[in-house]
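ugh finaly. both done.
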Amino acid sequence: MIVPVECLQNPRPNFSTKIPLGRRASKKLPVGFQVSSEIVKARAADIIYSPAEKHLLTIAPTGAGKFRSMLGPELLTYPGPIVCLDVKGEAYAVTARRRREMGQRVVRLDPFQVIGPGSDSLNFFDLFSLPGSDLETDAQMLSTIISDGAVLSRDPFWDVSGRGLVTGLIVFLAKHREKKSQVLHSLRELLYSDDTDYSLAVLLDTIKPMHSLAHGEIAAYLSQAERETRPSVLATARSYFKAFFSERIESTFGESTFPLASITDAEPVTIYLVIPPNKLESHRRLVRVWMATLMAAITTRRQIPQMPTLFLVDEASQLGNFPPLMQAITLGRGYGVRVHSFWQDLSQLSHAYPTEWRTMVNNCSVKQTFGLTDPFMAAGLDELFNVSVNDLTRLGRNEQYLARSGEPTKAAKLDYLKDAEFKSMFDANPYHGGDWPKLSHESFCLTETEELSLRAIAQRGRPNDNDALEHGVPNV
C-alpha cells in the first residue's frame, strides 16, 4: 500500500552513503597493491561518487565488465541493506563473506542451488501481516505479478478472470488456512485437485463467513459457463504457476527464514536472489514475485531510514514490464529506496517500458555506459550523454562515460580485482577458477546433471589465461 510521502516522518534525512562510480581522468599510475601509500591516497582521492539518495542506470553489453566495475564494488562497500538480483550466483560467491564482515545478515534465495545445497525462504504471505499492508489490494498486486502481467490482446477476458480467481484463492488462504507457510502447496491443492470446481463449491458451502473478496471471486468463477468458459479460465490460472510447482521452489516459499519486517525496518540485511541464466526466461515469474514482495514491504514504511535500501537489478530487461521497478525508480526515493538497474542497451529499456522509459531515465541522476563497440549499440546514448557516437564507441577498455545530474564525464572504470581499495575484501570468483563457498546447511543435494551444468563447468575457469586477476583470484 502506497503511503503519501508527506505523511512519512523525517522525509528528508541527510544520507551519508555514497556509491563509487569510477575515477577521474588523470595521469597513469601503477595499479595493484605493491604501490606506495602516497599513490594509494592519490588514487582514492580521484574516486567519483554518486550523489546521495539518487537512482543509478548502467547501460553496457554482455562481457563489458559490469560486475568487476560496478556490482562488485557496490556490494563490497555499500554499508546499507541490499537486495541483489544475482544472475549465476557470482555476486554471492565473491561478496557474501564481506557483507557478513560489514555486520549484514546474509540471505540467499537459491531454489536451483547454484551456490550449493539448501536455500533461504521467503513466504510472500508475510506481506499481509506488515503494519500498513492491505490484504485485498496486495493480493491483487501479487496475482498480477504471478500472471507475469499477461494480457491477451484479442480477448483480455481470460487473463482478467484467471487473475481474479488467483486473487480470491490467495485471500482465502490468507484468511482461512492455518498453515500459511505452505502457500504454494495449498494453491496447488486448490488448482489441481481431481475436481477443482467441486472443491471450490464445497469451500463456499462450508466456510462461513468467508472473506467477501475471496467469496466473490470464487463465486464469479463458478458462475461461468461450465463447458464453454470455466475450463479455459482454470487453465489460464494454472498456467501462471507452471514455474512454481516443484519441490525446491516450493521450499523457498515456505516458512520465511528471515522476518520480512527486517526489510521494512531497513535492518542490516543483504538478500541475494540467485538464479541461473538459463532459468531467467522460464522462471522470471519467480524473480518477479520475490522482487514485488520486497518492494511492497518497503512501501509500508512510515519513516525513511538513514541507510537507504539499495536494489541491484542486473539484467533488468529479463523482468519484462515490471511495474514495481518503475514505481521504485519514480517514487521509491520517498521510502528510502535506491535502484541501480543494468541494461545491455537503451532499446531493452524502451521495449520493456514503451511509455515510461524516458521517465525512468530522467529519475536516474546517475547514468553510466561503457563497452560499446559499434554505432548500433550506441543508438540513443549520444543524446543521453551529450557526446558523439564516435566518442562512445572509441572508449578504451577501462574507460566509461558518466552523467551525474546531467553533466557528462569521461572517467576510468573501477576494478575490484586490481584496485587497492578492495584488497582482501572479496573472495575468488568460482566462474573464473575460484572455489564455491562452503555452506553450513545441507538440506538438499545437487543431481549429477546439475553438478556438471552449474558448478563443475564453472570450476574449469579459463585454461589458457595465466593472469590470476582475470580468474577472479584475490591478489594477496
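ok and the 2nd:
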Amino acid sequence: PDFDHVSIDGVVTSSLGASRIDTARVTVAEGMVLKAHIVAFNDDNEVMETRVETKQGGILGMSRVISDGDFAFYGISAGETEVELYADGKLVLIMKATVTPQSQ
C-alpha cells in the first residue's frame, strides 16, 4: 500500500506564544514547546511507520515523547527551516518551519 495522508492532532502548546502546526507549517516561539500526535496512513487507512526530522536542529529541535506518534518541537533560535516527514522510510511531506522571536 502507498502513502495516503497524515493526521496531526492532540496538539498542545504553551499559552505564551503563537505556536501551531498543520501539514504545511510548524510555528514555535523561541524557548517554547509544541507537542503533536503525527501519524501517516496508507491508502488502506492503516498506520505506517512515521518518522519526523528537522533540517536544522539549531533553530528547531524535535524529539519523540510519551508514546508512538507523539513529537515535541521546541524553538531554539529565531529563524526558518524545514521539517521532513517519512512514512515507512520514504519522504512523503516537507513542512516549512518557523521559530519566531520571543516577545519582550
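summary for the 2nd one i guess: The radius of gyration is 13 Å.
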